[in-house]
Design goal:
135 residues; mainly alpha
Length: 135
């Protein structure tokens, strides 16, 4: 068997892995939790635990690394998504439900469409705001 054929197969197998890694890195570049304003729980913890000396920081490090990781995960999956619910609801209201100057016939015809489109629009907006940072 030709040894170069084996190398070509392994290179072709690694291309999707490299592409997935690059996609993951590009998504993380806009991650909402990387913005300090979106890490409420971790910021409170950082403000409450302030050792005065370098020795104190080193002594607390073994305990604070797991606690900080749990706080970051809680911010990422619970606190921040809950905090962006009002913003997503405001976006849906502005898009569909805000009163406009249109006649009653158009309002009547659009009402079922708006009722059907509201939940998926809210879900898409909420997921986007939960994952990415928007001003």
């Amino acid at each position: 068997m030709d040894p170069t054929a084996n190398r070509q197969v392994s290179v072709h197998r690694s291309v999707p892995i490299i592409a997935c890694a690059l996609l993951l890195l590009s998504v993380l570049a806009g991650c909402a939790v990387l913005n300090e304003d979106n890490r409420r729980f971790l910021n409170v913890m950082d403000g409450a635990i302030q050792p005065g000396s370098t020795g104190g920081r080193i002594a607390l490090a073994p305990a604070m690394v797991p606690v900080g990781t749990v706080a970051l995960v809680a911010d990422m999956f619970v606190v921040h998504p809950v905090c962006v619910i009002p913003d997503a609801a405001d976006d849906v209201y502005e898009l569909y439900w805000k009163p406009r100057d249109i006649d009653w016939l158009r309002k009547t015809l659009l009402f079922p469409v708006i009722v059907i489109a509201t939940p998926p629009t809210f879900l898409f907006d909420w997921l986007g705001r939960s994952i990415f940072h928007f001003e």
